[in-house]
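Methods: example folding runs. The two proteins below were folded one after another, and each record is reproduced exactly as written to the output file, sequence line first and structure-token line second.
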Amino acid sequence: MNRQKSPPAAVTDRGVRVALIFALAAERLAAYYEHGQWLTEGQGASLAADWLSRSKLNLPLAERRHLSDLSDQLARQVAATLSREAGLYTAHEMMESLDPNYHSEVAQSLLDECDRLLGDAASL
């Protein structure tokens, strides 16, 4: 919840994937609370491509779809376990945390969950 100057983090393949799951989950929650509808897997994969292109990165469609699916799992889990008001707050914190200078403990815990989800998916 505080704006902080932070040094640029080293970009790793895993870090990009974790950040992408987080960003897509934030977008999914924002869309859900704003419009009452979940993004489709394809819409998530398209958002992933847009996000990656802004970062001058690229992932194959199959991997974007997989990460989109993981973000969908996280977003639905968050929405199912929180009240509407808490869900709106969480979605807001996640969207604000897309700015690297914004620090949120809520968003950090969800980023850790994205890392766990990615690790669990890789071990299957």
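Second run, written to the same file directly after the first:
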Amino acid sequence: MPPRWPRQPDRKDPEYRRLDDRMNFAIHVGIYLMINSGLWFVSGIKNVHWPWETGFTLSWLAIVLLHLLYIAAIADYSPKSDS
């Protein structure tokens, strides 16, 4: 069941921003897992090792971890004033 928001969604709402950032992170992780597991699966089935696959996976993992660091520690979800 999809999440339901009890009021009109607005990026100025700190709770909505937090939920939106976490859902975007979950999508990022899902795409990372889908593409990299497919890449390594094909690599294993064909019994080949592409020279770029390890670097690609580790680089993208670093980006995912930076995304996690941002939403967990850096993002400011305090209420924004309209002034």
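Comment on the second run: The two ends are 37 Å apart (CA to CA).
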